[in-house]
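Is this the right way to post structure tokens for a design question? Let me know if I should format differently. Anyway, here goes:
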């Protein structure tokens, strides 16, 4: 499967459908709670609010195959340092 950045506009539009679910998931997990486990301690904590919104965007981008190559990441880091 091609990554999001390399797809045609029609395919990108189709993959954007995952963003439509974010408000509904956010409402659901705000009520129920989105539990995250800390690997070092094994404890759980419940994420809500702005942090939950950002996590749901990340989950949607994973489903969209939205990722960057290491060259793209390093070029952005170099630009931010200058």
């Amino acid at each position: 499967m091609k990554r999001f950045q390399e797809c045609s506009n029609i395919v990108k539009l189709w993959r954007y459908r995952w963003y439509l679910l974010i408000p509904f998931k956010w409402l659901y997990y705000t009520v129920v709670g989105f539990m995250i486990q800390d690997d070092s301690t094994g404890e759980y904590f419940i994420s809500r609010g702005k942090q939950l919104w950002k996590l749901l965007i990340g989950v949607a981008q994973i489903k969209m195959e939205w990722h960057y190559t290491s060259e793209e990441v390093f070029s952005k880091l170099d630009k931010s340092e200058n």
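Format looks fine. Someone answered above. Worth noting: The CA atoms of residues 2 and 8 lie 10 Å apart. The beta strands are 34-37, 44-47.
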